[in-house]
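re: ur question from yesterday

yeah so i grabbed the chain u mentioned. its 490 aa long if i counted rite. heres the sequnce exactly as i have it in my notes:
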Amino acid sequence: MADTRVRDERGFILPSADIDFEGSDSPHTLHPLRFLGMGLLIAWLCCTHVDTIYLPVSRDVRVLAETGMRIGDIGTFIIMAIMARRIGPLSAHRVSASALVAITAAGTAVIGLAIVPASMGPDLIFAVSVVTAIGGAVLFCLWAEVFCQMGTTSMVVYGGGSCVAAFVVYCLVSTMMQPYSVIATSLLPVLSLACLWASFKLVPYEAPRTKEMSYPVPWKIVIIMGIAGVLSGLTGIVLGETANLGAVHRIWATACAGALMLYMALRRPSMFDMRMMTQVCLAVTVVALVFVPGVAMGFAQVVSFLMKLAYVWFTVFVIAVLANLAFRFDLPSLRLFAIARACSESGIFVGVMLREAIGRSDIVLDAPTLAGAALLGFVLVAVCVLIWRSEKAVNADWGAAGISLESGAHVQSPRERLISSCNRIAAEFGLTERETEMLMLIGQGKTRTQIEQELFLSQNTVKTHIRHLYAKLDVHSKEEACALIGVKAN
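ran it thru and got these structure tokens back, copy pasting raw so excuse formatting
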């Protein structure tokens, strides 16, 4: 009878992975598309700033409504950051969160279909805009909580997919005539919320914060986010009277960033890491600033798009870093993301206000002025680079890991201990990055099907990786592999 056992390149028999991991018999793994609901929120944020879709009225009215929404957005994030300890996981307040998102959808419709078309007073427009933004901020933090419970690969793929999904939705809504485009835009937060609650069925809920622990804020990342926001908000000045095109450039930049993330994560995973994301962002920013003096020669659109691309790319990167911090160190996500988002939006708001002030002044955007602006931009970028390089590594804790209130020492979370143990085993046995990732997922009690979904790999590829992993570790079962890293198999 022929020997059907699998052997490696040295001729050693590889252990079978089939008996350890129950999973689907189908060679095709289904990936839940509900996680792309984040793209509906992104689409809502973009559509409400595009005048051909929402509020095709005078510039003053649009600025008033957008200012109200920004203030409501920033204020909500600040309140959530201050009250985070008392609020706990935002997903635990399902009814309240759903009500706030419903108010956001209703406010979007009321502003676009009633208040602005009827030329009601500016105070009413401003007040309703402030209230409308509240649910959007809550929805963002809820999605952050979902992504914080994902592994790095899933987080990057679904994050990039959400960016592409946002662009597709924007394209569909942009083909609609008024008032249908306003109605469609108003429905986006509710649809995103439905996807959100469905997503929580597939990821674990965030653990409540312990009273014995303190969680510092990663201020380095937050400061860089604020500076990036100022640069993004100021960019519209190069567009002059067509500053509203910045919103269109942002959605196109979002699509480009998402598509590149998907391609690299799925087709070139060995070349994709967090450091590459920062390098791309820095390169795009430098190119955009180089073109700033050429705005008078017709490069305004190029500068605007490149700056939006750099900002979107950096924002996605920071969200990935923060989600990875929360995942690895079991950090409460609400305060972390609320502070980061508040600083980012505050930076944009400051940039927009500076842009409006410059537009009303006698400053002429001639070549010397633009060159000075570019030089100032390079200085701000240099400050960001210096702050960034002061951190030891991209995957470090950035000063955000939990600290015991009693001893003042860092306390390792269960997942952090698991990751440290897997990294130690990987160094000892010469595991590849993919094999180390497999070992971590096995230690978390994932089934083979769940590993396929987590890493976006085929059934046969996962089996092969597990066989090679077992051979290197000289183990023959999931229980033995888990015992090696000091956890119980479940």
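noticed a couple things. Confidence is low (pLDDT under 50) at residues 1-20, 22-30. also Residues 414-484 form a domain with the Arc Repressor Mutant, subunit A fold (CATH 1.10.10.10).
anyway ttyl
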